[in-house]
Each structure stands twice: as C-alpha cells, then as structure tokens.
C-alpha cells in the first residue's frame, strides 16, 4: 500500500488555536491519519500521512471546513508518498511558535524575504555576489545540501540568530539567499535578517521539497538526500524515498 504524505504550514493569526486542538485531532483520527500538527497563535505547521482519500479530505477540511472558517486559504503544501506508514500515531500539539526562533519581534505576517520559485533558484545562487545559507540543523545538512551553501552548524533553529550576529554583516553580505526543507524556517529567518538591516534576502519558495519535485535531476544543484522528520528519513529528486540514508542515521 502507498501512503500519501502532506507537509504543510501557514502563518495566519489563530487566536483560538487552543480550542482547535481537540476537534482537529478528532478529524484526523476519523480519517485514519497519523503524523504531527502544531498549532500556535501565529499559524499551523506539520506533516501527516494517510490514504489518498483521507489526506484529500483533511486538506478540504483545513481549507474550506467549519473548523478554520476559511482562514487557511494560503497553505504552503507539498505532497509525497511513502511505501509504509511513516508515523506511529497522530499528535496535535500547542506551541508558542510553529517554528521556534525565539525572537518575539520577528513576525513573518508583517515582513518576509523575496520568494524565489524553484525554476529561478539556480540562476540566483550561481550569482557571485550571493551568499547561500542553509538554515537547517547540522545533521540535516550532512545528509544533503545545495552546492556552495554555507552551513551555519547549528543544532537547533533558535541558534540561527547567533550565527547571523557572529558571522554575517549587512554591510558585506548585501545579497542573501536561503533555503530549508519546506520553506517555513526561511519565513522566520528572512524576516529576522531584514529586521537586522540586511538589504536583499531571498528564500526558496516551497523549500527543498518543492525544488526536488519541480526541477529535473539533470538540472539540479542539489546533492544528497533531504532529511524528513519521519520514518522515511530522507527523500531525493522526485520526492522519492532514499533507503540508503537510513543506514547513515543509524551509524550516528
């Protein structure tokens, strides 16, 4: 059996996020869906898996159902597949942030960097005046990244602020391009960097997942696998599972 996997997020005001937890959990259980969804005042984030019918029904509920009342009208959404169910259970968690940067002044609802479509990404990062940043954690970078990307060597996303403070300078790094798995970390990171005085900040729309889905492997600048936070461990071009990377993680 093949399972459909949906990675999704949207920054949107959800002042009632606590009241949404239990009914959203029930909807997912009724549809036979497993995975993790995070809810916070700033939006929703997560990855879930189920049958194609179940995932399609959940997406319809999120976008048009009574639960969110049309507020999730701009979901950043990527689909892939798994040969086995990649999650053990269904969890809906309440968080302070749907991706934790730890800077209360950073607000992607007010300002973010310039989105770059996957089709335009190669030409941007090949420009000699661009510094290319991988905003993911160190173990993710080790599994795969874009050619020429700077690895901040962070263990968790909240350390990205320290990397910017200690290693980057708005007067020297005038043109910054960044990427992450699905796009959500770059929403926060680009908003933070703009607030720190960096003039031009670009980020890959839809993240690595969208790039691997849209850009032919022959034209790709991506090397290795893209770590995903489920039992598949990593995926590659065409969003196909990479079983060979499971042994790499086991070795650690």
UniProtKB/TrEMBL annotation:
Pfam family of the protein (one): Rhodanese
EC number annotated for this UniProt entry: 1.14.-.-
Xref: InterPro entries: Rhodanese-like_dom, Rhodanese-like_dom_sf, TrhO, TRHO_N
Residue ranges of domain Rhodanese in the record: 126-220
Catalytic activity of the protein: uridine(34) in tRNA + AH2 + O2 = 5-hydroxyuridine(34) in tRNA + A + H2O
Record keywords: Oxidoreductase, tRNA processing
GO biological process: tRNA modification
A single GO molecular function term of this UniProt record: oxidoreductase activity, acting on paired donors, with incorporation or reduction of molecular oxygen
First-level EC class: oxidoreductase
PROSITE patterns documented for this protein: RHODANESE_3 (PS50206)
UniProt record similarity statement: Belongs to the TrhO family.
Function per UniProt: Catalyzes oxygen-dependent 5-hydroxyuridine (ho5U) modification at position 34 in tRNAs.
Entries under NCBIfam families matching the protein: PRK00142.1-4
HAMAP family named among the record's database cross-references: TrhO
Protein's UniProt name: tRNA uridine(34) hydroxylase
Organism encoding this protein: Microvirga flocculans
Underlying gene: trhO
């Amino acid at each position: 059996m093949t399972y459909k996997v949906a990675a999704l997020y949207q920054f949107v005001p959800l002042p009632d996020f606590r009241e949404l937890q239990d009914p959203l959990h029930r909807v997912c259980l009724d549809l036979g869906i497993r995975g993790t969804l995070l809810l916070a005042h700033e939006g929703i984030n997560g990855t879930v898996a189920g049958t194609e019918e179940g995932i399609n029904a959940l997406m319809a509920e999120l976008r048009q159902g009574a639960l969110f009342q049309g507020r999730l009208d701009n979901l950043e959404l990527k689909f892939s597949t798994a040969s086995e169910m990649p999650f053990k259970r269904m969890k809906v968690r309440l968080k302070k942030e749907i991706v934790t940067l730890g800077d209360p002044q950073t607000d992607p609802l007010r300002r973010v960097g310039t989105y770059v479509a996957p089709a335009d990404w190669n030409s941007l990062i090949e420009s000699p005046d661009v510094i290319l940043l991988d905003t993911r954690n160190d173990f993710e970078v080790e599994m795969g990244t874009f050619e020429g990307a700077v690895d901040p060597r962070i263990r968790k996303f909240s350390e990205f602020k320290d990397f910017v403070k200690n290693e980057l300078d708005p007067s020297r790094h005038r043109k910054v391009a960044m990427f992450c798995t699905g796009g959500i970390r770059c929403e926060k990171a680009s908003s933070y960097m703009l607030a720190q005085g960096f003039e031009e900040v670009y980020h890959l729309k839809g993240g690595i997942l969208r790039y691997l889905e849209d850009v032919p492997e022959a034209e790709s600048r991506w090397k290795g696998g893209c770590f995903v936070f489920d039992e598949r461990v990593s995926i590659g071009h065409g969003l196909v599972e990479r079983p060979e990377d499971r042994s790499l993680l086991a070795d650690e």
